[in-house]
Amino acid sequence: MNTSLNNIHKLQYLETALVDDVNKVISSLKISDANYNVAWNLLKERYNNKRVIVQNHLRHILELSIVTKENVSELRQIADGATRHIHALKALKRLTDAWDDLLVYILTSKLDTVTADLLDT
Predict the structure, then answer these.
(1) H-helix or E-strand containing 28?
(2) Residue 101 Cα distances to 15, 28, 42, 108, angstroms
(3) What is the spatial distance between Cα 86 and Cα 57, in angstroms, rounded to a whole number?
(4) Residue among 87, 78, 77 at smallest CA distance from 107
């Protein structure tokens, strides 16, 4: 964070950085020194909910796309997506180290039949 910016500039920057529904949370606030802290607290209250963040990462893992035919690019997307969300969950201090069996089941269910059959042999 740039500490040389005053709260008015921070609020202006924050407003331009937010999109869609996120921006609506603070759109009614006038640009002022005091409203930067108000805006920041509103955003933290709405979006800094650890339970919701964890649930979103789990949902993204469960909703990884299903590979319909052998395709290295799609397999890489599944692996990268799972890895990204597992790392995010670890950063949130979730105990993911014992999830091996569950993750193997979830991720192999995303594989095409040819690739899945190769794993069974």
Answers:
(1) none
(2) 44, 48, 39, 11
(3) 8
(4) 78
Whether residues 95 and 109 share a domain: the answer is yes
107 in Cβ contact with 66 (< 8 Å): no
Same structural domain, 58 and 109: yes
Q: What's the CA angle centered on 119, arms 113 and 121, to 5 degrees?
A: 105
pTM of the entire structure? Answer: 0.67
Axis crossing angle, helix 50-62 with helix 100-108, rounded to the nearest 10: 50
70-119 tens-digit pLDDT: 889 999 999 999 999 999 999 999 999 899 999 999 999 999 888 888 88
Domain annotation covers residue 2: no
